[in-house]
Amino acid sequence: MTRLPRWADLVLVPLISLLLAGIISALVILAIGESPSEALKTMVVGAVGSPYAWGYTLYYATSFMFTGLAVTVAFHASLFNIGGEGQAQLGGLGVALVCLALPWPHWTLALMAAMIGAALFGAAWAAVPAYLQAKRGSHIVITTIMFNYIGAALIIYLLVNVLRPAGQMDPATARFPEGAALPQFHDIPFIRNLYLRYDGSGVARLNAAGEPIYQQVPANVTLFIAVLACWLVWLLLWRTRTGYEIRAFGKSQQAAIYAGISPVRITMIAMLISGALAGLMSINNVMGESGRLLQNSAEGAGFIGIAVALMGRNHPVGVFLAAILFGFLYQGGAELGLLTGIPIELRTVVQGLVILFTGALDHMVRMILGLFFRPRRTVVT
Amino acid sequence: MVADTQAGRQHDAAAPVQAALAIELRGISKAFGSVQANKDISIQVAKGTIHGIIGENGAGKSTLMSILYGFYKADSGQIFINGQPTLIADSQAAIRAGIGMVFQHFKLVQNFSVLENVILGAEDGALLRPSLAKARKVLGDLAREYELDVDPDALIEELSVGHQQRVEILKALYRHADILILDEPTGVLTPDEADHLFRILKGLKEQGKTIILITHKLREIMEITDTVSVMRRGEMTATVKTAGTSPEELAELMVGRKVLLDVAKTPAKPGRTVLEVENLRVRDADGVERLKGISLSIRAGEILGIAGVSGNGQSELLEVLGGIEHGTGTIKINGEVIDLTGKSSDAQSRRARGIAHVPEDRQHLGMIMDFTAWENMCFGYHNDPAYQKNALLMDNDAIRADAEGKIERFDVRPPDCWLPAKSFSGGNQQKIILAREIERNPDLLLVGQPTRGVDIGAIEFIHKRIVELRDAGKAILLVSVELDEIMSLSDRIVVMFDGRIMGERLPEETDERQLGLMMAGVGEGEGA
Do B359 and A258 touch (CB under 8 A)? Predict the structure, then answer.
C-alpha cells in the first residue's frame, strides 16, 4: 500500500472518512423520510451556531477529552481500557464524597480536592483489572468491561442505600454545597458577556435587582483543565521516562524486558493514569453541571472516549479535536430529536457511522487515497 | 530510468540458448513506493541445473523470487516457463506452472502430521482418507528416490529443523514441482544437515529437476551450484559459471568493492577473569530445562565463541546473562556474585554491572521498530542521568546529539536519527544496536548472531568493531550459528548441545568437521 504524505494521513483521511459517514447518515435520514439538509442545518445551528450552542457542545467535548485521553494513555501501553465508563462513574463517587464532606469556602479549593478524589477513585477502579492483567494475565478488555457493570451496580447500591438523603425519592446524593459549584461559562467574566439575554430592541435584559440575565449553559471551567490535561498527557508520553517506557512497552513487550522495563510496573502505571483521567471526567458533569451524583452519571462518555481516541490517533491533539467533533455530534443529535421529526436515536446511528468510517474502515479510505498519491516511479541509485 | 538496461541486454546477447531453459525472466522490474527493488532483471535458468542467486540483504533476491512465485506482480517484464510465456498471478498459478518454493521460515502446521501437511491445499476431494493414502505412497517413493526420509505420521513439532525442511521439499514435489526455489535453506541447519540437504538437491538435479538456491553464503554457492547470478541493489550485476569464479570475485560483485573475507586480528592478550559462570540452569515457561548446568569463564581481552545449532540453549544463556530470563547457579561478574532470581535480576541491573547485550533477535528484542533511531540509541539506557533534563523530563536534545555522534562513528546509513528503526536495513539496525552497546564501554559484551541478515560490507565493519572492543581489554561472549564467524572471531570456542557444553576447542586446533560433530551431540563430552 502506498504511504501517504503526512498531511494527507493526518488531515485528509479523517476528513474524507467523516464525509463518507455524513453521506451514509444522509441516506439513512432520507430513508426515514426526512430531509438531510434540514437535519444538517439543525445540527450545525444547534451545536455550533451560537455561543449558547457552543456552551453545550464544549461541555460534552470536555468529558470526551478526559475519557479519550484515558483510552490514549492505556493504548500506548497496548492496553485496551474499555472501563472508562465505570472509572468515570467511580470518579463521580470520589467527587461527590469530597464535595459533600465539607462546607467548601471557595470553588477553587473544592475543585482541587475533588480532582484528587475523582482521580483516586477512577484510578482505584482501574487498579484491580490492571493488577489482574499484570500479575495473572487476565485480559484487560474482559475485566474492565466487567468492572463497568460492577461499578454501575455499586453506585446504584450506594445511592439508594447510603448516600440518598432521608426523604428524597430519586437515587441521588444531596446537592453539593454552594462553595463546591464550579463557574459555568455564564458565570465567568468576559465569557459571560456572550450569554447576555437581549430584548427585542437589542438592549440587555436586567432582572429585578438590576443585574443582567444570562443564558445558562453547562460548559464550565473544567474545559480548561481538560485542555491542560491534553498538554500534560503529551508531555508524559513524549517527554518523560515513564512515557518512553510506556510507549516502548506498548510497541514490544519483549524488547521492553530486554531494556529492563518491568511489565508489571508499566501496566500498573499506565492503567492508573488512564483510570485517573477517566475519573477526572466527573469534575465536568458531576461537579460542574449536575451538582450532585446521579446514577449512570457518565452517560456513555466512557465508551465515546474509545472512539475519540481512535479518531484522534491516540495523540492528545487529535483527541482534543475528535472530542469537539463528538461533542458536536452529541449536541447536534440532541437538537435533531428536539426540533425535527428525526428521533434522537439517530444520534447513535451517526456516531456509529463516524466510528465505523474513522476507525474500522480507515484502511479502506487510506487505500483509495493511496491511488492518488502513488509516487512516480523513481530509481534509487 | 537510468541506463541500467544495458546489463540485461548484454546477458541476452551473451548467452546463446544452448540447453532448454526452465525459467527465463526478461526485464523484470518492481518498485515499492520510491524503492526500486528489481530493476530490469533478466535471467536464464537452464533445465536440470542448480542456479545460485547471491546478493546482500535488500539486493532484491527475495522480491524477484516472490514475483516468480506469484506473491508480487512485476511492474514490467515477462516470465517464461519452459519456453512458454506464463502469467503468474498467484502462488496457485506458480504451482500449476511447476514451481515449488521452500521458504526460509517454514509454512507448516505445527500440530499436523507430515502427511497432513503434505496434502494441505492439495486434497483430492472432500474426504481425506484417499488423499492421505495416496500421499503415503508418493512419499514412500520420493523418500527412496531422493534420500528424503521422514516419518509420514510424525507431528511437525516433533521433527528437527532439518526434517521440517524436508517436509517442505516433499510438499513441493508432491505438487509436481519441476522447479524448486530454496530461500536461504541452510540458515537453520547443522553442517551435517546442510550436507544432507545438498545431497538431496544433487539427487533432484540428476532427476532433471531445476533448482534455484538463494543464499548469502559464498561457500554454498561454490560447493553446489552450476551457475550463479549476483544481485546488487536491485540489479543483476553478473551471471557466471560457478566453476570459473572465486569467492573473492563473487563478494566483490555483491558489494561493489573489494572485501576482506577474513577477520584481521592479533592474538588475544587475556587479562583478569571478568565473567565466571558455574552450574547455570534455566527452565522455560513449560518447566523444560533449557540450560543443564553450564560452567564457563571469560577473561578480559578475549572473545569466547559459543557454537551450536540454534535452539540448544545459547539463547537462554544470553538471556539469563542479560537479565531477561531467570535461572539458578552462580554468575560472577568481576568477582561479584549477581542476583539471578530476585527483584534486582533484571536487564537494568545487569547494565549497571557493566554487561552490555546485543541480542540475537534484534528486531524483537534489541530495538523498537516504530521508534526513531535516536529513541533506539538510548533504549535500555534511558535512565542514564546524562539523558535527563531534570527529575521529570528527558533531555531529548542531548539524546539526539549523542545519537548523531554514534551514527557517524558507526557509519549508520542513512545518517538520519529521525528515521524509524524499521526503515533501516538489517545491517544498519545492527549498527545502531552495536553503537549503543559498545559505546557504553561495557566490561562484558554479550553478542548474539551479530551478522545474521547483515550484508557482507557491514559484516566486515561489525567484526572489526568487536575485535577492537576485545583489544580494548573487554570480555566478549559471542553466540553465532555461523561456524565461519565463530572460527574467525573467537579466541576460544565452546560448543553447546542440548543445554550442555560439549567441549572447548581452540580455533587454530579444530576444524568445522570436528565442531559440526560436537554440535550434533557427538563428542567426548569433556565438559568445561
Answer: yes
CATH class of the B273-366+442-519 domain in this structure: alpha beta
Comparing alpha-carbon positions, the chain A residue that sits nearest to B343 is: A262
CA distance A113 to B308: 63
pTM of the model: 0.81
Residue-wise pLDDT for A71-123, tens only, equals 999 999 999 999 999 999 999 999 999 999 999 999 999 999 999 999 999 99
Largest Cα–Cα separation, chain A: 83
- The lowest-confidence range among B180-184, B245-249, B257-261 is B257-261
Chain A residues with CB under 8 Å of a chain B CB are 2-3, 235, 239-241, 244-245, 247-248, 251-252, 254-255, 257-260, 262, 375, 377-381
Chain B environment of A247 (Cβ under 8 Å): 368, 371
Contact check, Cβ <8 Å, B364/A252: yes
**pLDDT value of residue B2:** 42
What ranges do the domains of chain B cover? Answer: 5-255, 273-366+442-519
Q: Distance between CA A225 and CA A112 in Å, rounded?
A: 11
d(CA B241, CA B255): 19
Q: Which of A241, A248, A252 lies at the smallest CB-CB distance from B394? A: A241
For the stretch B495-527, what's the b/e string if a residue is b when 16 or more beta carbons lie within 10 angstroms of its beta carbon? bbbebbbbbbbebeebeeeebbbbbbeeeeeee
Cα–Cα dist B265/B260, whole Å: 12
What ipTM is given for this predicted complex?
Answer: 0.86
pLDDT at B19 over 70: no
Q: Quick check: A1 pLDDT over 80?
A: no
Of B4, B364, B380, the CB nearest to A260: B380
* Most confident of the ranges B102-111, B341-350, B384-393: B384-393
Between CA A319 and CA A71 the distance in angstroms is 10
CATH of B5-255, one of 3.40.50.300, 2.40.160.100, 3.30.1360.120, 3.80.10.10: 3.40.50.300
pLDDT for B260: 65
